[in-house]
């Protein structure tokens, strides 16, 4: 093993251990419900929420440990050279060889994940009353995901490999441009073409709720023409709402479980929060961060592709573009892990700001609080997450912190986002 192999190995082990420690701390405090949230769960519901968290966590531990163990076996028993030699023997040329090899490794990873997805859906989610997915729907979702991945991912992958194969290290800028264009294109076509493959989207029917939503959108200057209800109940009892798309493809999507189980005030408060993300430019800023991050990644990748010690760390005797792409992603693991902390913190700050925007512009602070409580209750959420687990994993603040921030904003007379964000 060379020094790069040690970096990758230590990083993989450290990340796995960090997640296990965070999960263990999270489990330890799960039963201690904060005083302000005691009315949310009965004693039986509190135990059920802890049992649910325990079941999901234990399954995640088994899956992550097994995945890491099998990967290390594959690595140290020279699985990468074996796959490389096998695929090269087909005689497809460097670009197609890379595409086939990456797809093959992706299939191996997906095959390992499949039993856990089945167990999580049909055992854990079923046991706690969330699952509404049939086996036919589950399998069809997997088939559709594979086909969509092949249709979108294979051409992009082939293009990136071809650029680096023919233009060398200077190809990173062209790859950056192509991937950015792909990211923008996906945001346009996914709401219109991809998501309807998995769910049915029905325009929100005319009535008081739609009238109030359209009136609110007009007051904040939010151009809105598409409000859809998605049949989320087809798969789960959990509720949600989200914003997707750009320009004419922009749409607000409400789960039918949200519309059916929450009051119009609560639904509008949730939508005000989602619109707040757009008005406060969180979506745009997130896209800019992703664009910049992609550029840095491709630049660093261009330096690593022909770096022989990187390939030697995985027992490769030659440098290939596609293996360089795979190995660089592994070498980048510690950087990605550390970047996760500030990015998650930024996301949590955005949630506070969107909450503040919602209560300031809609006046529905109490409704937002009751909606958040309902969403957490119906999903058996952990009401006392450990700070380390939050820092490592959570893009949203804990419920109690959000409620306190919202209530502070209400008392301040909707004085603005700054007063609320400072409470994090």
UniProtKB/TrEMBL annotation:
Keyword set, alphabetical order: Hydrolase, Membrane, Metal-binding, Metalloprotease, Protease, Transmembrane, Transmembrane helix, Zinc
Annotated cofactor note: Binds 1 zinc ion per subunit.
Keyword Transferase: no
Stretches that traverse the bilayer: 61-77, 89-108, 145-164, 171-193, 213-230, 285-305, 325-343
Pfam families: Peptidase_M48, Peptidase_M48_N
Superkingdom assignment: Bacteria
Domain Peptidase M48, chain residue ranges per copy: 204-408
CAAX prenyl protease 1 N-terminal domain sequence ranges: 27-200
Cofactors (names): Zn(2+)
Record-linked InterPro entries: CAXX_Prtase_1, Peptidase_M48, Peptidase_M48_N
PANTHER family xref list: CAAX PRENYL PROTEASE 1
Membership in a protein family: Belongs to the peptidase M48 family.
Name of protein: Peptidase M48
């Amino acid at each position: 093993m060379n020094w790069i192999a040690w970096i990758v190995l230590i990083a993989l082990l450290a990340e796995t251990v960090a997640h296990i420690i965070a999960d263990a701390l999270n489990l330890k405090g799960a039963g201690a419900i904060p005083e302000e949230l005691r009315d949310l769960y009965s004693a039986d519901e509190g135990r059920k929420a802890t049992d649910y968290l325990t079941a999901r966590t234990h399954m995640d531990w088994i899956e992550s440990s097994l995945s890491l163990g099998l990967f290390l076996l594959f690595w140290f028993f020279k699985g990468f050279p074996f796959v490389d030699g096998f695929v090269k023997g087909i005689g497809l040329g460097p670009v197609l060889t890379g595409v086939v090899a990456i797809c093959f490794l992706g299939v191996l990873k997906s095959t390992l994940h499949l039993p856990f997805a089945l167990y999580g859906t049909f055992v854990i989610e079923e046991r706690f009353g969330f699952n509404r997915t049939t086996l036919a729907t589950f399998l069809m979702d997997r088939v559709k995901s594979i086909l969509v991945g092949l249709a979108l991912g294979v051409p992009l992958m082939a293009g990136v490999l071809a650029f680096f194969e023919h233009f060398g290290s200077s190809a990173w800028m062209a790859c950056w441009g192509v991937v950015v264009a792909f990211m923008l294109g996906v945001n346009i076509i996914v709401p219109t073409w991809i998501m309807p493959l998995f769910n049915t989207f029905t325009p929100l029917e005319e009535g008081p709720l739609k009238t109030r939503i359209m009136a609110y959108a007009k007051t904040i200057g939010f151009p809105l023409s598409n409000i859809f209800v998605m049949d989320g109940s087809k798969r789960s009892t959990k509720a949600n709402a989200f914003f997707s798309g750009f320009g004419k493809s922009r749409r607000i999507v409400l789960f039918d479980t949200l519309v059916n189980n929450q009051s119009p005030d609560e639904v509008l408060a949730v939508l005000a929060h989602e619109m707040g993300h757009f008005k406060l430019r969180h979506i745009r800023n997130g896209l800019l961060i992703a664009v910049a991050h992609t550029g840095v990644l491709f630049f660093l990748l261009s330096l690593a592709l022909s770096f022989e010690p990187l390939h030697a760390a995985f027992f490769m005797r030659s440098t290939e573009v596609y293996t360089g792409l795979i190995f660089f992603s592994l070498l980048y693991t510690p950087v990605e892990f550390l970047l996760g902390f500030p990015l998650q913190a930024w996301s949590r700050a955005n949630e506070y700001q969107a909450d503040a925007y919602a209560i300031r512009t809609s006046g529905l602070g109490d409704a937002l609080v009751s909606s958040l409580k309902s969403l957490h209750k119906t999903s058996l959420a952990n009401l006392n997450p450990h700070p380390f687990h939050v820092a490592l994993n959570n893009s949203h603040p804990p419920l109690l912190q959000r409620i306190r921030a919202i209530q502070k904003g209400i008392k301040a007379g909707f004085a603005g986002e700054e007063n609320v964000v400072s409470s994090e």
